[in-house]
What does this fold into?
Amino acid sequence: MRARVLLILVGLACLAALPLFATSYYLYLAELAMINVIIAVGLNLLSGNCGQISLCNASFMGVGAYCTALLSTRLMLSTLISLPVSVVISALLGAALGYPARRLSGLYLALTTLGFLELVGIVIEEFPEYTGGIRGLKVPRPEIFGFSFQSNASLYFFVLALTIGAVVVGYNVRRSRYGRAFDAVRQSPFAAQALGIPVARVKVIAFSLNAAFAGFAGSLLAGVVGFIDPPEFGVLTSIQHVTFIVVGGLGSITGSIAGAVLLTALPEALRGVQEYGELIYGFVLLGTLLFLPRGLVGVVAKLKALRSAKPSAKELAYGAP
Amino acid sequence: MALLEIDALSVHFGGVVAVADVSLSIEPGEIHGIIGPNGAGKTSVINAVSGMVVPQSGSIRFADRELAGVAPHVISSFGLGRTFQHVELFGDRSVLENVLTGFYRHQAYGLLAATLRLPKAARTERNTREQARNLLDAFDLAAFADTSAGLLPFGIQKRVDIARALAAEPRLLLLDEPVSGMSETEAAAAVTTMRKLARDHGITLVIVEHNMRVLMNLAERVTVLNQGRLLASGTPAEMQAHADVIEAYLGDAA
Amino acid sequence: MTWRIILQLALSGLSIGSIYALVGLALVLPFKASGIVNFAQGEIVTFGAYLALILSGLGLPYLAVVPLVLIGAAAFGMVIERILIRPIVSQPEFTLVIVTFAIGLIIKAGIRLHWQDNTFSIDAPFVGPPLALGALRLNPAYLVFIASMLVVVAALFVFFGYSKFGKAMRASALDSIAARLMGIRIGSVFSAAWALSTMLGAFVGLLLGPVIGINPEIGHLILKGLVAAVIGGFSSLGGAVAGGLLLGLLETYAGAFFGATFKNVVPFGVLILLLLLRPQGLAGASSARRV
It folds into this structure.
């Protein structure tokens, strides 16, 4: 436990020190990784913990991004307002999808989310007066009380602070009764109901939370990149999000962080072979699903179990041999 | 007044009649057994009472509230709990977390408080954790608190299932074959615990079993089902001597 | 709105609907056999088209390419089933869905790696000027689409209704345990279902390629196939066919009367409405159990 806290503190210290020796490109990369961490944490709550498959995560990201873009360019609203409003709108949309879909599961749920993704894509493209259509939309840097995060370092810290906040929120949800309810709904809806857990309502909450995280990330992404366009919010992106949590570890916050960081760094590390990007993503996803069903976190857990002298469940029950 | 009143209950699955015209009533504080050979419809009765299955006809009244057609989690909120024949634990969570989940309904903090870990949420969690540990102690599960529930032997999982169901503070607990899969000693311990629950905590128990021996020492009254119908009802001793009951069980250990 | 236009639109709708029907069939077949939806089916269609491209690039005429592509696709399907799908059949649905997506991703990325996003063309005997039938102008490709669909449906009907293996597949879909007990080798049934399904997908690629051009985005029409399958409740082959035709007609008429935007919305609107209101589809079949 102490080791863990120490690790986190060291990690944070490194992150805080990054602007001192990283170029603007690597700061940008770090920001993308952090935004992906937020996405992964949110998606893991819905899919990893609550077991609800979602192929439209990118849509909620898009909703957040376009909301922020419109609120800051059309209504000149400060990030202080546009960010929370985007999150709330995404959350509401998440509930709007989650509610009618609450009785669906597996295949039909996947199809519904897919349909939703396509619909959002169509809306984005068919209202270019608002969304810029396929030509995209330019977005200004985040700005609070007149202070615009123009410098690379200030933007970096802004994103870092918000990411830490999001991870803490995710962690809080997981250790609250809601986190337990999510796991219960995934593993045994019958037992959950017998314990008084309103399964359908919990699913809607999960969808809404996921959408909120994705919308939050989308808002940040818009401000960091400065430009958004429809292809970013398509099915491929949704699959990439799923890859984060599958590779990192379903249902685990640490897994979300690890998966998101690794898979943001991977395409960059393979810059030289950029066309292979999608191919590699596909193989990483496939390989992880086939050979490492519990992701990186599962691998670490197995290694720890092999090395530790803790008694197994059977030993506890029947005494050591 | 009876705590649970089942009146002319019928449960159909497609063309199959699982339960036909079964009536029984259960007094508060009672330990009541429902027994019958395989296929008698015992689990279907439990499923109907707990709301997992919608009855074809008949009424189920709990503390004067009609249960038929009501959603399972709402039924649970009325004070009705159940355990499962095949346990249905949350396998990849620890035993402690399983039991903690049982407290869901009684933890009165909302989503916002949860996300921000407001003092109310933190306090509630601390209290619940303590209560959960007490439950684990009562069921001799303290050693397994941090073990993944799915890794435990079946008999121990059954204890976790009961502890978890109790966390929800039910007034009436439906137990579906609570000692199946347990060793002799485990079963004896479970029977003692169940008796203590009823006596000390006033929880009404409805125990489904196919093994009459277990109910002999435990149940005050027993209802015998056979092929979905009510066969007989009375004290365990009466049922053991009942001609129809013996015939229904021909070949089964009485 | 004259009679002529309505009939033209009907023809157009039925022909594209035939394509949707075939894709829908390709999706329902492995689902009935093993409970898995192959989200890579769109890329199978693309695969078929590119395989045809390769073969015709070698100088082979279209009619020779057809059987070769079908055989190649069947083999491809069996390999995928054996190596990638069989090991994970017992995993949660989440994993299965994502695995097939990953397979599709790999196929598409592989194709793009070699051919980039260019559009290629191949010749086919049914691509030509419209034929005249009275006042109607019939695009020969449309006719071939519809005819092909009818042939496929008839063949499947005979196969499932009368052939030993087809009956074995039906038995496995209904109750795999009983089927096993009766000596039916489930593994072979799975492989056959996948092989049939990839053959169908590649066949669609063969049909579409010469008409709309060969590029990596062909696979996007899996969504239409999914809608067709859902209309049929995802459990009925006939329902998938009817669903595909219905979708084709709906789309075509919507596009004609309300414009292109509406046309694009139709399939997804239908999908979401059905999934939320009537998941068992218009055919109203019972839910298929996963093996």
